[in-house]
Design goal:
By secondary structure, the protein is of the alpha+beta class. The chain contains 10 helices and 16 strands. Strand 9 and strand 10 form a beta hairpin. The radius of gyration is 25 Å and the shape is elongated.
Length: about 400
């Protein structure tokens, strides 16, 4: 099989190839491949970080194609990706190899004592509607001396290399079939009422004529009643909800007001130029400090209805903050107060239970940076916890 990579490494004498048929379209598989993170590799992420492919602990949350041992050199959406490099991987602490900017540089390089190596991914649509993903690894020593030095290293790492490639393919399949969010599973059925017990069981009364109390940095206060909010354009959006405990609900339809409109027309004129975060507080006592830049995403809302019905108490009446790209603990229910502040207001649950930002895509479940351990721990108690929320038979896809 001739590919762009085989043309760049025509004399490769060490190679491996792995394939997997995935039940998803080529576009879905391509999106999964190009967004894949090292943390998605359930089996081999520790091997990757140990060998130094991830330079820092944060590297595990970065895209695999941007932060791997080889440099991305060709991206042809949605069919082909290739990466390559020059180095001496057999060294205990490999020295940096000559820089290659593209595959032509790889092809033309011939200095003795080096290894040219690369990896590619090829996507092929099948008549069944599946997509076959094939990954090939090629290694081409530049001379006999490099070949002799690389061969024992290859024999040692070849089983682990194959393990990593197969783990990559499985991770791509998981993302393509369930491209909801890193480390999440889709709960089948409606979302239950959920949250920390101290807030779930708090006694409070929902006012008949609710208002949002807004306080600026000078402690000046004003209120927004329903009439003021109704002056904004109403919008309905189908948005996903992500609980930090690794379950998600897809496509809940929220009706309310865009936060961008709320900020532009009702809040911005009252904010000091140094305002960088907003603190939302609910009638149940829950609160979240969120950077303004995160709130100005197009899909952030203050909702008053869910799936065509006014919000019930269980789901945040009278108003609920909906921030789909942040974990559920930032989506404050029963919103009654907004504070405009010039700093982050730390939650008493940071960093053990909550993260300062809580971004789903970066899997910021909490501030301790042990996401794989957190996934495992939450998974152990997930079904029991959902049953306590009223889900009798939790099922996922």
């Amino acid at each position: 099989m001739t590919t762009i990579l085989t043309e760049a490494l025509p004399r490769a004498c060490f190679s491996e190839r792995h394939s997997l048929d995935i039940e998803a379209s080529a576009d879905q598989v391509w999106a999964a491949l190009t967004s894949l993170q090292w943390n998605d590799l359930r089996v081999t992420a520790p091997l990757v970080l140990l060998r130094g492919l991830g330079r820092t602990p944060a590297a595990g949350r970065q895209r695999m194609l941007d932060n791997g041992p080889v440099r991305l050199m060709r991206l042809e959406s949605p069919r082909y990706a290739a990466a390559a490099a020059i180095g001496r991987p057999w060294q205990l602490r490999p020295e940096p190899g000559p820089e290659a900017k593209d595959l032509q540089d790889i092809l033309g390089f011939g200095e003795p004592g080096w290894l040219k190596y690369g990896m590619d991914f090829t996507l092929e649509e099948l008549p069944t509607g599946h997509t076959r993903v094939t990954t090939t690894t090629l290694c081409e020593p530049t001379d006999e001396s490099a070949r002799r030095r690389f061969r024992p290293y290859w024999l040692l790492i070849r089983p682990f290399s194959g393990l990593i490639r197969r783990d990559m393919l499985r991770a791509i399949a998981r993302r393509a079939r369930n491209d909801i969010a890193p480390g999440q599973r889709v709960l089948i059925g409606p979302a239950p009422r959920f949250g920390l017990p101290r807030y779930l069981h708090t006694e409070f009364t929902i006012p008949q004529d609710p208002v949002l109390k807004v306080t600026d940095q000078a402690d000046r206060t004003f209120t927004l009643d329903r009439e003021a909010l109704n002056a904004l354009s109403e919008t309905t959006k189908a948005l996903d909800l992500h609980c930090v405990m690794t379950w998600s609900v897809e496509g809940t339809r929220w009706t309310g007001w865009s936060f961008t409109d709320l900020w532009t027309h009702l809040l911005r004129d009252h904010a000091h130029p140094t305002t960088i975060e907003l603190v939302f507080t609910g009638l149940d006592g829950a609160a979240a400090s969120i950077p303004l830049v995160e709130l100005l995403h197009d899909d952030v809302m203050i909702a008053h209805s869910r799936d065509g019905e006014p919000l019930a108490r269980d789901h945040g009446a009278p108003y609920r903050l909906v921030v789909p790209h942040l974990y559920g603990y930032k989506n404050i229910k029963h919103v009654c107060r907004i504070d405009l502040v010039d700093h982050h207001v730390r939650s008493p649950h940071e960093p053990w239970i909550m993260h300062r930002l809580g971004r789903v895509e970066r899997e910021e479940r909490h501030g301790l940076r042990m996401n794989r351990l957190a996934r495992f721990a939450y998974g152990m108690v997930l079904r029991r916890t959902l049953r306590s929320y009223g889900v009798r038979d939790p099922r996922f896809r």
